[in-house]
Write a structure and sequence with these properties.
heterodimer; A: 85 residues; mainly alpha; 78% helix; elongated; B: mainly alpha; Rna Polymerase Sigma Factor, Chain: A; Arc Repressor Mutant, subunit A; 2 domains
Chain lengths: 85, 190
Amino acid sequence: MNHFCREASQLQSDELERELTLVERIRLRMHLLICGACRNYADNLQLLNSFFHSLRKQTEDDKNITLPDHDRERIKEALKKASES
Amino acid sequence: MSREASNPESWLTDHGDYLFRYAQSRLRNEEQASDMVQETLLAAWRGWERFSGNSSVRTWLVGILKHKITDLIRKEIRNRKLAEAVESDPTSSMFSADGSWVEAPTSWKENPEDLCESDQFQKTLQGCIDKLPEKQQIVFRMREITGEDTESICKAAEITSTHLHVLIHRARLALRTCLDHHWFGGNRHS
């Protein structure tokens, strides 16, 4: 018997990147109904996806990341030079 | 537009940290990130008359920075000749000839917010990403760590969206296995 797991894993990843075609969607849903391993893979991807989402929010809000002082001075000098020339 | 608004030193004061954070989250290299901030402010100064005033100064600066970063990544990919590199396909070892999983995925019982708080998990994840082939690493980081859109990633890596989706898929498969072995699986046995 041929299994659909290999294709299903690609479709599951694609679903996070683009809209699946109707046929792709139906094939994937039908397969997930009968395949526990692929349902687990779906959960794993979902968890990673939510994790990365939270991580991005955390990084954007991280006010501890600041331009180092020596770089700030260097940039200030470069801007001064540019505006004088 | 007032003279004050077109003063690059005030841009540095008002937006320097923000721009640096933006660049740092994408490049993960402090030196490159601050260089990008400098180039952005210089370009903004030279192109000030092109600023339409329809958006905020910050939005305008971020737009310039984004272009600079994409260019930098593209150059890096070119220099390291990654575009031509043939990278291994992990799917062949993860599935049997009949298309079934060699090692069936199991359920992961943790929640994403807790994982975000765990330095240990982030270290494990970083280690797993580092093990990916180089091109996969770059596009995967752009996609998941910095949340870049498909168009910018394809532009930077000079690949089609179809190719990008294949690379992301391979990266996810490899990452899942790696995390299962080094994190989730370990918890299961304890």
